[in-house]
Here is the input.
Amino acid sequence: MSPWIERAIGCYLLVLGTALLSITPWAWSLASQVAVSGNMKASFLWFDFTATPAMSMIAIVIVMAMIGSVTVMALAFSLRAGHKTLEEGYHRWYLTRPITAASLAVLFYMTAIVGFLDLTSLQRSSDLVVAAALAALAGFFTDALLSKLRRVLGLLPPTRGAAGPEEAGGDVDPHEGQTGRWG
Here is the structure.
């Protein structure tokens, strides 16, 4: 990876992580207030809106998933940069992983509340903690969760061609598509 891209990714991770950690107290406070008092007027940056219990839960899910994702990315980046093992072309992974993690966390949370939480009780603050924990775990383990979902759904790993091993000209690595220790 070129030194310019390496520095850009390092700055991106620093800015994104700091921004997410900076808005977390605001989002948590809003979600807690909405859980107790119901719908309320709020504003974020230049936007005014009415915060609802369901919307505030989704906001917490998105923020916590992105924090979990940025945590793994920062760990992977610092480890690989320190050992001079940053792979060429992985800059796309660093750019898209927080969005993937947030999207997956919303789906994971929606699936989890169908089975574990009572949808009529979204006003309880304990549900906020559950939502945050599920989302952070989904963000932290995005690659592993995606790998498991691919197997459950019978989808091919993204690094394997659709033709299969016979037509691709060789054996398939049994570990193909799995991620390493830090992403």
